[in-house]
Specification:
With about 260 residues, the chain is α/β, with parallel strands linked by helices. The protein has helices at about 1-25, 40-45, 50-70, 90-110, 125-140, 155-175, 180-185, 185-190, 240-250; strands spanning about 30-35, 75-85, 115-120, 145-155, 205, 225-230. It has one domain: Decaprenyl diphosphate synthase-like (Undecaprenyl pyrophosphate synthetase), CATH 3.40.1180.10. A 6-stranded parallel β-sheet has the order 3-4-2-1-5-6, with helices on both faces.
Length: about 260
Amino acid sequence: MKSLHRILKSILYPLYERRLFKKLNLAESPKHVGVILDGNRRWAKNNLASSKSGHQAGARKIVELLGWCEEVNVEVVTLWLLSTENLSREKNELNALCEVIAETVAELSREGKWNLVLMGSLDLLPIWLADRLKKSIALVNGKKKLTVNLAIGYGGRQEISDAVKSMLEKHLSAGDSLKEVVNDLNIDEISKYLYTAGQPDPDLVIRTSGEQRLSGFLLWQSAHSEFYFCEAFWPDFRKLDFLRALRSYAARHRRFGN
């Protein structure tokens, strides 16, 4: 019976995927999609594998996701690969995770298809990891159709703190008085110093693994984002799940607070 069930799924799922895809209006696709890649460790536990194997399985899914995004004309994808909270994990586990991240970014760079952007507090990362990430990013030349933000050592509160610090440093180095700095302290000014400065805010934020919270992901930028929570662990996330997220997004009336 299990074998028959797998055969039926292998036949029906592609048909359902094509049906969903045809119904999408690509002109209404989100321009910026943020993804919280959650559930790698729980996937590994369910499959009696090591945590590192779970992270590696999740890493392999990223290239598939970027291909799906290109198909529907998404222009920016932000992937949360490592949070500031993750940095407090047990040393051996953290080192294994950092190694997978370094290999993943190197692989994305070798693909040469996407404009890769590092976002996060690189100074909080192990020095060897920050160096490898910078070298991988440096190998990507030219502007590509799809920009991929790699949120590594990222926290939403940390980003806002870094943005305010950068803004203050620039004003003070220019000789501006504290009063002038305070007068310039507004939403638009702070936005210029975010990691995503110059990019559109995310239209759609997807989180896998069934957790229904943002955990600080794109805290500032997601004020008017639509959210889609998927039960599947990240390594099990399918194109079908992605298309369902797009269908859900398209069905919502975005009022932007009005």
